[in-house]
Amino acid sequence: QVQLVESGGGSVQAGDSLRLSCVASGRTFSMDAMGWFRQAPGKEREFVASISWGETVTNYADAVKGRFTISRDNAKNTVYLQMDSLKPDDTAIYYCAAPISYGGSSFAPVQLASYAHWGQGTQVTVSS
Question: Which of 41, 39, 31, 78 minimizes the C-alpha distance to 61?
């Protein structure tokens, strides 16, 4: 019943920026944490960032700390991923996701297994 739709991907040069958006519907968006994952060709899906629904608790993968920023606008049912200083290693399909269960206002899981609802993904390609 949860629907997630990502947008904002594209092809950019190293050092450029992109902002991804994920619009959620079919649930009480403000009561759930949200996460971003990515998957490169031939690689497993990996955690990128997560954000709690209440308290401003965020988590980031080491590979993106200092470059990516996750945020949300509950009034718009939207989660964002601002990506700055993009590198070729950031090339992947980016997915937004919602957790399996509620874990509290400061809950922002980083494990793939904690998420049950996934968007279709948006492609990000970064060239040198």
Answer: 39
> What are the pLDDT digits (tens) for 41-76?
999 999 999 999 877 899 999 999 999 999 999 888
- 45 Cβ neighbours under 8 A, 6+ residues apart: 37, 38, 39, 95, 112
What is the spatial distance between Cα 97 and Cα 119, in angstroms, rounded to a whole number? 6
**Beta-strand (E) ranges in 8-114?**
10-13, 18-25, 34-39, 46-51, 58-60, 68-73, 78-83, 92-99
pLDDT in tens, 12-38: 999 999 999 999 887 665 567 999 999
